[in-house]
Amino acid sequence: MTFDISNLGQTTWEDLDMNKLLIFSTLATLVENSIMWPMWAMKTRQQVQTGAVTHSLSVRRMGGLRSLYKGFLFYAIASLPAYLTYIGTYTYTKSALSTPSADGPVETSKGSFPLTMAPMAAGIMADAACLILYIPVEIVAQRLQLPTRYSGVQQVLTDMWREDGLRTFYRGFGATLVTSCIASGVWWQTYESLKSFFTMATTFPPPPLEIVSPSSAPTSSTSSSLFSVELVLDQVSELFAAIRQSLPHMIAGLFAGGLSALATNPLDVAKTRLQTQHTKPGPLTFIRSLNTIIQQEGLWQSFLRGFAPKLVSSAPLGMLSSVMYEGILFMSRKDNPMLGGNTTGRENASDKEM
User: Fold this and answer.
1) How much is the CA Rg of the chain, to the nearest whole Å?
2) Over the chain, what is the mean pLDDT?
3) The three-state (H, E, C) secondary structure of the chain, written as one string
4) Separation of alpha carbons 100 and 190, rounded Å
5) Per DSSP, what are the bridge partners of residue 16?
6) Residues 153-210: pLDDT tens digits?
7) Is 20 or 224 the better-scoring residue by pLDDT?
8) Cβ partners under 8 Å of residue 177, min gap 6
């Protein structure tokens, strides 16, 4: 078996090496968050504050562009378990739901689930699985992003605990569950559908590139090194070729990000204000928050608040996420010789024994 670019976009759960998946998912998550964090900060401030002028002044008052990275280090580290849970749950669930039924209709999975809806179901399940880990991190990060008196994470945690104890860290859980699950379901369903469409509509035959496992190459003190220069260069070359092949994925991710942002922005506005308030929430707070926003600011203006930075971040983020996700799966395959992958070597060894 060889590790080549034809596997891009076709990797299933059974093809993955869990150690590689953990490593590459972590690296990709850190890179993605560092790129998109300023836009997320701007979106949060604009959704909570009233008026673009106020928002612009707050950025300048807090220290300019540097202030947009306030709270990033905490978020980047604390959110990793949630992101890894999300990626693993989606990949496993989609692979399970996408397995055709042996004796049932062709368009259904083993569990009699429609194959065409597998991405949406997997996206919703992945989001629901990671929210218990993600929501406290998001709330703390949002408060750090705002132009408030908070000087650091410890002060935020102390104030939140004084407000309502542990419940403060899960404030707006229902709102977040609804908003995030809808966004995730819409994103993945749109992405997977458009990916298939654009892949069929474009003709980019994969170049005949192959990376030979180090075990099948001539043995020497240099070539047997796990991180030999030749192997790394070959991997980089293969990765760039994969990016060229991933153009349909990038276009699909761009559209998916924009559509999910449009579908969930009204809910996101109410959720963000609910999570950043400093009073104990009452009954039906999420519904009441929606009604209050509409009454005070009008339907159109309130529901589009923060949409511009959200769209500017969500559409490119969708494109970036598609490349990252497909790249993670591609690099995490068991037949990838990097980081100890040695499928070819094992097959050759078994052939010799026979």
Assistant:
1) 23
2) 76
3) CCECHHHCCCCCHHHECHHHHHHHHHHHHHHHHHHHHHHHHHHHHHHHCCCHHHHHHHHHHCCHHHHHHCCHHHHHHHCHHHHHHHHHHHHHHHHHHCCECCCCCCCEECCCCEHHHHHHHHHHHHHHHHHHHHHHHHHHHHHHHCCCCCCCHHHHHHHHHHHHCHHHHCCCHHHHHHHHHHHHHHHHHHHHHHHHHHHHHCCCCCCCCCECCHHHCCCCCCCCCCCCHHHHHHHHHHHHHHHHHCHHHHHHHHHHHHHHHHHHHHHHHHHHHHHHCCCCCCCCHHHHHHHHHHHHHCHHHHHCCCHHHHHHHHHHHHHHHHHHHHHHHHHCECCCCHHHCCHHHHHHHHHHHC
4) 21
5) 333
6) 888 888 889 888 888 898 878 888 888 999 999 999 999 999 888 877 665 454 444 5
7) 20
8) 127, 128, 131
Written as six digits, the tokens of 60 are 């300048």
Sign of CA dihedral 17, 22, 23, 28: positive
Count: domains in the chain: 1
Domain containing residue 130: CATH number: 1.50.40.10
Tokens representing 300?
């159109």
Q: How far is CA 60 from CA 63, 67, 116, 150, 338, in A?
A: 5, 9, 48, 17, 45
What range defines the domain where residue 257 resides? 5-353
How buried is 202 (Cβ within 10 angstroms: 0-12 exposed, 13-18 middle, 19+ buried)? exposed
**pTM score, two decimals?**
0.73
pLDDT of 277-314, one tens digit each?
Answer: 666 655 446 677 777 777 777 767 766 777 777 787 78
Q: In whole angstroms, what is the distance from residue 320 CA to residue 75 CA?
A: 19
pLDDT digits (tens, 9 = 90+) for 14-65: 889 999 999 999 999 998 888 888 878 877 777 676 554 444 545 555 556 6
217-231 mean pLDDT = 55
d(CA 148, CA 287): 26
